[in-house]
Amino acid sequence: MRASLLQVAVNGDETVESRRRRVADLVREQAGADLVVLPELWTTGAFAHEDFGREAEPLDGPTRQAMAEAAREAGVWLHAGSVPERGAPDGGSGGGADAGEGPLYNTSLVFSPSGELAAVYRKIHRFGFDEGEAVLMSAGDALVTVPLPHTTLGLATCYDLRFPELFRGLVDAGAETLVVPAGWPERRRSHWTLLARARAVENQAFVLACGTAGTHAGVPQAGHSIVVDPWGEVLAEAGPDEQVLTVDLDPAKVAKTREQFPALKDRLLGLPTPTPRP
């Protein structure tokens, strides 16, 4: 299975519409790949909080249309990163819901090679510690997996990477390849690499972690998109600038790893509460 991670540069000197067209062309250039992955919030930038509401789209908005067409023309499965989604006014309460407006979500879209929308994942863990995304956007509430011909994807986004229980839930739901689009800052790049490898090792799964390059609202991005195998070995890693990172994966390695080193079978769930000593 050939996977291409598009580490898109996101800078304020490019309009959203211009970047949308450019990224669609990049996707088209990946014809021959099986899976293409884009970063988190590449239309606006993950730290451009003031743009979330202004550039938010409904699910059938311009990014969905452009990415569906690009996936179809390239003939690839496309994880189109994430976009700020404006939900329906009755779609629930939460951050970003001004009077008469629906809530905002950080929403990932996955398209089939025919351009059909195959999955939607709304980011569960929002970053910001009571600021930024954490207060502007509402949380998703569903784990999402996507069956492909060669593997089953488990979807997560950026800050989700710090919460291993989410990934364990995805593995329990059948995930073999964990896809993590992100807008990860350069100042915590060491965490990005460490956590991607940890999630691969503990779940015995491939991890495809695709970040952005450039600077979002004055925050330099880490870049360094990374592909990790089920043993935690780094198969490919990008540099800091815009780059297409392409790697060939053997999907059978997941089952082989889990058979050779069956650690997942030794999980003990629902442990009893320790009895206090007299």
From TrEMBL:
<protein>
    <submittedName>
        <fullName>Carbon-nitrogen family hydrolase</fullName>
    </submittedName>
</protein>
<dbReference type="InterPro" id="IPR003010">
    <property type="entry name" value="C-N_Hydrolase"/>
</dbReference>
<dbReference type="InterPro" id="IPR036526">
    <property type="entry name" value="C-N_Hydrolase_sf"/>
</dbReference>
<feature type="domain" description="CN hydrolase">
    <location>
        <begin position="1"/>
        <end position="251"/>
    </location>
</feature>
<comment type="similarity">
    <text>Belongs to the carbon-nitrogen hydrolase superfamily. NIT1/NIT2 family.</text>
</comment>
<dbReference type="Pfam" id="PF00795">
    <property type="entry name" value="CN_hydrolase"/>
</dbReference>
<keyword id="KW-0378">Hydrolase</keyword>
<dbReference type="GO" id="GO:0016787">
    <property type="term" value="F:hydrolase activity"/>
</dbReference>
<dbReference type="InterPro" id="IPR001110">
    <property type="entry name" value="UPF0012_CS"/>
</dbReference>
